[in-house]
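Notes, p. 3: input format for complexes.
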Amino acid sequence: MSKVEFNKETGPREVFCGLTSIVWLHRRMPDAFFLVVGSRTCAHLIQSAAGVMIFAEPRFGTAILEEKDLAGLADAHEELDRVVNDLITRRPEIKTLFLVGSCPSEVIKLDLATVAEKLNKRFSGQVRFVNYSGSGIETTFTQGEDGALKSLVPLMETTDEKKLLLVGTLANNVEDRFKKIFKNIGISNVESFPPRQSTELPKIGKNTKVLLTQPYLSDTVRDLKHRGCEIIYAPFPLGVDGSTKWILAAADAFKIQELKVHEVIAPLANRARQALEKHTEILKGKKLFLLPESQLEISLARFLHNECGMELIEVGTPYLNKDLMEEELNLLPDDTKIVEGQHVEKQLDRVRASNPDLVVCGMGLANPLEAEGISTKWSIEMVFSPIHGIDQAADLAELFSRPLKRNQILTSKTLATY
Ligand code: SF4
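Output follows (418 residues plus iron/sulfur cluster):
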C-alpha cells in the first residue's frame, strides 16, 4: 500500500442526508415508490433535490409527521397506514414500496420494520414493502443507496448459477456499455443490482461474483457476503486506468487472459485518452482539496491526480472502509493526506490556508467558498452524472475543468473591465 497519511476528525458536519439518494434510485426503478416518513423539511429537501413534478405523478412522497405525532399525542402508525392505503389504491402500478425513515421518525422511534412486515401481510402478492433509513443523523447522502439496496438483499432468491453481479446504481447507457465489454471478453452472464425493475431482482449465491460500481455500499456488501457471494476487490471504474483495472479484476475472477481484455478495450482506451488531453491541459498542476461528502472522494482523487495531473492537498471522506478502498489507496501517491469524518470549520480553515485552485464540496459550502473567490465543484453532481467507464473519462474530467475554465474567463473579464 502507498504510504498515505490517515487522519480522523469529528465535529460539525455539513452534508446532505440519505433521502437525496431517492432521486437517482426512483429513476433507476420506475416501478418502485419511495415514501419518506418525515417532516416538512424532509419533503422540501426531496422535492427540491428531485425538482417538483407538477404534471407527472411522482414516484416519491412524504408522509408528514405533524407536531402532535412528534410529541407522541397521536398514533403515527394509524396515519401512516391511512397514507399507504390511499397510495396503493390510487397507484396500482407500484410494485415495491420503500418506507424511508428520517431523523424525525428515528427520534420518535417509529418502527418502520414492523410497519413493513404488517403491510407485507396485508398486501401480499400485490405490493412488496421494505424499509430503510435515509436519516441524516449519522449518515451521508450516498449511504441512502446502501440502505435501500441492503433492504432488498433478503428478497433476492438463491441460485448456484455462475454470474457477475454489478452492484451500485449505474446510468442505463453506461450499464449497457459495460455489459457489452464483458460479453466481448467472454463474461456473458452479467446482471445489475439494483435492476431496472424492482421486481426483477437478480438471484444470488455462492457462484455470484460481485463487482462494485460504487464505493459507498459497505452494508450491502456485508449482506451479500453473508449470502455466499464473492467480492471482487478492485479500484472503481472511474477514468481510463480505474475502469481498466476494474474490468481486469473481473476478468481475473473468471480466469480470462489479460491479453484478451486489452484487445477489447485498447481502442476505447486510446480514444478516451485523446479526449482527456484537452481537460488535462487545464487541470495539470492545479491544487485540489476534496471535502468529505459522497465517499467517492478517494476514487476521484486517484483519477484526478494519476490521469489529469492535479496536486492533492487533502482528500476528505465521510467514512473510510479500508477493505473496499485498499486497491484505490494503493494507487494514490505517497503522503496523500486522507481525512475521515468532518469538522467543517477546521476543514474550511485548512481550505483557506492552502489556497486551492478547486474544492470539491457539498452545495451548502460551495456558495460561500465561491464568494471568497475559490472555484468549487458540487460532489453531488458525481452521482447524477454518468461518470463511470473508460469512455466517460473525458466527461468526468470536464466536470472539474469546467469550473476552472469558467473562473479563468471571469477573472480575465474582470481584469478587462478595470
Ligand atoms: S432526514 Fe433529517 S437531515 Fe434529511 S431532510 Fe429530514 S430532517 Fe433533514
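Residues 17, 19, 38-39, 41-42, 45, 102-104, 134-136 surround iron/sulfur cluster (CB under 6 Å).
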